[in-house]
């Protein structure tokens, strides 16, 4: 006689409510919210890290391969900088791109204190951060890092994420990273709840989601990896209605992916057209978009004390913005099915606007990207959220974008969205962000802001 089956609930009860309670708790039990920036600044000063630009010839253990000319590490680990050839019906280009096939871990530990979920956040130095130290996940490590390919120290708290108790996992999803700079890069985004005593190291603090919300309102405090993990958490309850049903939304997005033809081919770095290389950088002839440079990091206070590496540096700040409207009492944002050369699945859902304005300044209004001028010229009384956040500081140098949520109207963003765009609710976007390769990393930052309550959307017109 076979053993009786035992069914379990399809989802853990109360997670959304517990996250909402944490978001509504502005003070935690371990550090006052007002002291968090100062705590980060202390670690910034304490680590004494110096970042210095160097010529490629001074890279230690990095070199251009004799045959391909690609830039890689002598261990064969970490990442390589290669060439990418992208062909679309309306455009064709070649560019450098970071190839990092290994999957990293971005993990945040959660624990209840006084009945409220707190999250273990790290004051982590990354060489590309404009202010070096930002609020980061508990664990933020590539496989090369946590298998100690660099010969450094153990990654703290890693054991909670490598083989977690499935009953304690709040979220676990593979997510893409920047499709313009990474080739098919993915990271495992996780939140794992723990019980009992957890050792607290000096560079870590337990914060409520409400405290993290306050930090999201400040410039360059919460790093990209923390933002993407929080966006994957089931924070948004489903709305009672939407302009499109979930099935219609999926059908639209599947159609968008299917209609875009794109062919990508990795190629030797020295052969890419339209780019030039000297001893200090690889850059476009017209000096647009980004360049590849090299840096030396000294006194890092991390798993290893110092190292050198190549890094991507954008030529100017970006802008990432959602148009936001309320239809019949239900908030919606306007997403863009954006194609980028590094995506695995052709397109992902992006913000309404995701551009570096300097790259399009020479174009007249008719040929500039849709909605870009609308966001650049948004009236202050329409802006519901505005902060500058840096992108991934381990691979990108001073890569900052102004993140905006802007209330719009029928005249500027009609309910009948133009081709390539679609109105979705935050709940729908959160549902999709719980799955791989639907919502891109920049839109996930804005989703974390929406779901956590960091945006001032309480007085939007209905």
Automatic annotation (TrEMBL):
Pfam families, alphabetically? Hexose_dehydrat (PF03559)
Which InterPro entries would you find in this protein's record? EvaA-like, EvaA-like_sf
The dTDP-4-dehydro-6-deoxy-alpha-D-glucopyranose 2,3-dehydratase domain extends over 34-232, 247-450
Q: Which domain of life is it from?
A: Bacteria
Q: Can you name this protein?
A: NDP-hexose 2,3-dehydratase family protein
Query: What organism, scientifically named, is this protein from?
Result: Streptomyces caledonius
């Amino acid at each position: 006689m076979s053993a009786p089956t035992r069914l379990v609930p399809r989802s853990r009860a109360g997670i959304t409510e517990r996250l909402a309670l944490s978001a509504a708790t502005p003070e935690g039990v371990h550090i006052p919210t007002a002291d968090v920036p100062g705590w980060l600044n202390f670690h910034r000063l304490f680590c004494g890290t110096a970042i210095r630009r160097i010529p490629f010839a001074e890279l230690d253990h990095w070199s251009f391969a004799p045959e391909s000319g690609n830039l890689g590490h002598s261990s064969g680990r970490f990442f390589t900088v290669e060439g990418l050839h992208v062909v679309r019906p309306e455009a064709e280009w070649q560019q450098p791109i970071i190839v990092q096939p290994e999957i990293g871990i971005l993990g945040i530990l959660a624990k209840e204190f006084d009945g409220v979920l707190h999250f273990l956040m790290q004051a982590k130095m990354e060489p590309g951060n404009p202010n070096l130290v930002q609020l980061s996940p508990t664990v933020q490590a590539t496989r090369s890092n946590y298998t100690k390919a660099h010969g450094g120290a153990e990654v703290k708290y890693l054991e909670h994420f490598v083989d977690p108790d499935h009953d304690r996992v709040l979220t676990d999803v593979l997510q893409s990273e920047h499709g313009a700079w990474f080739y098919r890069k993915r990271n495992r985004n996780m939140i794992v709840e723990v019980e009992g005593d957890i050792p607290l190291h000096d560079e870590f603090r337990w914060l409520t989601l409400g405290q993290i919300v306050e930090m999201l309102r400040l410039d360059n405090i919460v790093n990209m990896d923390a933002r993407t993990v929080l966006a994957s958490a089931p924070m948004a309850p489903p709305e009672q209605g939407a302009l499109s049903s979930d099935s219609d939304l999926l059908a639209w997005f599947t159609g968008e992916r299917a209609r875009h033809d794109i062919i990508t081919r990795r190629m030797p770095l020295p052969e890419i057209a339209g780019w030039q290389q000297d001893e200090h950088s690889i850059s476009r002839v017209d000096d647009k978009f980004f360049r590849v440079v090299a840096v030396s990091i000294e006194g890092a206070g991390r798993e290893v004390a110092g190292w050198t590496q190549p890094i991507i540096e954008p030529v100017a700040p970006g802008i990432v913005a959602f148009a936001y409207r309320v239809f019949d009492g239900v908030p919606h944002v306007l997403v863009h099915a954006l194609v980028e050369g590094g995506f695995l699945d052709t397109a992902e859902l992006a913000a309404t606007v995701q551009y570096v304005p300097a790259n399009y300044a020479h174009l007249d209004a008719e040929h500039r990207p849709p909605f870009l001028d609308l966001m650049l010229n948004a009236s202050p009384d329409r802006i519901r959220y505005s902060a500058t956040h840096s992108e991934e500081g381990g691979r990108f140098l001073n890569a900052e974008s102004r993140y905006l949520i802007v209330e719009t109207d029928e005249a500027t963003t009609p309910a009948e969205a133009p081709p390539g765009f679609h109105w979705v609710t935050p709940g729908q976007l959160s549902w999709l962000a719980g799955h791989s390769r639907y919502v891109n990393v920049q839109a996930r930052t804005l989703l974390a802001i929406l779901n956590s309550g960091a945006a001032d959307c309480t007085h939007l017109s209905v």
